[in-house]
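Task: encode each sequence below as structure tokens.

Item 1
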Amino acid sequence: MIRIVQSDEFTLKREEQDLHAKEREIVIDMIKQVRQHGDEAVRAFTRRFDGIDLHDFRVPFEQYEAAYQQVSPLFLEALRDAIRNIRKYHEGQLRPSTLTPMADGVLLGQLIRPLKRVGVYVPGGTAAYPSSVLMNVIPAQVAGVKEIVLVTPPDREGNISPGVLVAIHELGVKEVYRIGGAQAIAALAYGTETIRAVDKIVGPGNIYVALAKQAVFGKVGIESMAGPSDILVIADDSADPEYVAADLLSQAEHGELSQAILLTPSRTLAEQVAAQIVHQVAKLPRRAIAEAAIRNMGAIVVTKDLQEAVAIANRVAPEHLELLVRDAEEYISQIENAGAIFVGAYSSEPVGDYFCGTNHVLPTEGTARFSSPLNVDDFLKKQSLIRYSKEALMKNGRKIIEMAQVEGLEAHANAIRIRLEKEGKGE
């Protein structure tokens, strides 16, 4: 089911964005319709794609009450513990504004302020993700965002997943709309009669949501262009093949384009993991999806040694990277490109997905080479502060004029020259 190859035979498979020309055209038209017709267009697309005609987009209060009766006490306990862990972790990312006094009475600074209004997209449909609520809302709250707007698609009865509703209620999000897809992204970006436009949109979704976020970028901010989920495991002969197979499948079940790769210098482990994948995938409810992902996007690569495995991992730049090797901590500093690094046999990827506190919104498709997990900074903006003194301008004005004139910007130069002349410091 999963291919076993030598390192010199390994080629990386990745989805090409250009394959989505048709979907992009659909999305652009949907955004145009929402911009022109507002709620009417959102309502029409919700009827068409979600199978329900909603007069009121807001989630009725009684759905929240009912949701608590439909989740288990253990789920509620786990959710509340996860909220505490995630909030504590993200609070550690906060930093103050800075003011730096310079010579001649100059004061320079960086002011850090929260965004005012943020939209959070939470997927629905075939699967609902309470964890997406936590991972996207909590860092925004920690950053100090005052207005958080959440959208999520309803089922054909207009209901939202009980787990998602409980997560929303536990976090105290008040502005929640039962809409999804590209129409929800358009509504958040441009506003409608019901929904006021936001400053930034975060959260994962299907290809239509991803393309819509890409299309509205510039009108609003987005956190990333999320692609299919992926995992890469580096393991030696000390690793448990059952653990390795289970962790590879934990990402393969996300979708048929999810990538799962094992790098190991042990041919024996490679064969054991391959056998375990066949054994374990047969028991999964999402077996068809996981099998397709493993068959099309999975690979077990037998490397010369662990150093070659690390080198390949840095080229792949995975979303999730697990180190299941002896003395795993010694290899952390060598991992240059990864969204999240999971160290040791008990740091299974779902620990980060749900509970420990780190954010599970991670860079995908190799973008860990230049981007980071979702964090508090994604919900903050920085402003430069300049208080230049008369003494400093009189001292440095001629230098500023010279630089402006070299660039051919005489009005820039003149803005300084006028001040120097008025103070008797002109030519």
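Item 2
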Amino acid sequence: MKIAIITGASSGLGVEFTKAIIAKYQKLDEIWIVARRKERLEKIAQSYPNIKIRVIPIDLSDDTSYDVLNRILIEAKPEIKILINNAGLDINGRFDAMEVGDIINMVNINIKGMTVVNRLCFPYMKKGSFAIITGSVSSFVPVPSQAVYSSSKVYVKFLTRALREEVKEKGINVCLLCPGNIDTEMNIRSEAKMQKTKVSRLPYLDMKKLTVKALQKAESGKSVYTPGTFYKIYRLLGKVFPTSFMMKLTKNFFSAN
């Protein structure tokens, strides 16, 4: 049984990836969508009555969810052709004012959840399979007011690049997706503009085009995909200029408020 797995599938990029995979990869036997909100996942599945979609309602911030996913994989023994490891959480604010619970949730989802999903799924991937792991432009330079989030995405970046080297000899590609501003629940465009946040001044990416392009890039063997000219230039600047200089830019333009 050949399948695709999408985590963080109940909103934002996860929904768009699900749509794009359904449209492009019609020979898959099943598509598994993973997120904590069961009702939303079921609504997505009901929208495609002719597609076999398996709803897996688990919270990747909870350790018990890994046992659930592992048991499902052991029982089904699928061949994972596409893995979209997309679940993530972004809560902005000064570190000394953040709720401890919010910090723990970000670390649990962005680092632990992302890591364990890779570990559970990779043994079921074979030659020709590929994975897209969602990072962020926030990993290019430390971002004040996003200290925990940007740090967690640095971990994602390093792990993804290392994993790619480990599995490419098996004919499996792992692609790091580093998007910038997207109109999602974590960053609603209309609210950001209304509140006149700094982030609202940055270019917003088209999620539909982004996901289609990311699938093309990953399938063709690309290691990193940063959508949008503005963010590509930002990535380059982060490599060329000293971190102290770039942090002044991120403080003025990338931090939330």
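Check on item 2: The beta strands are 2-7, 30-35, 53-57, 79-85, 130-134, 173-177, 224-225. The first strand starts at residue 2 and ends at 7.
End of task.
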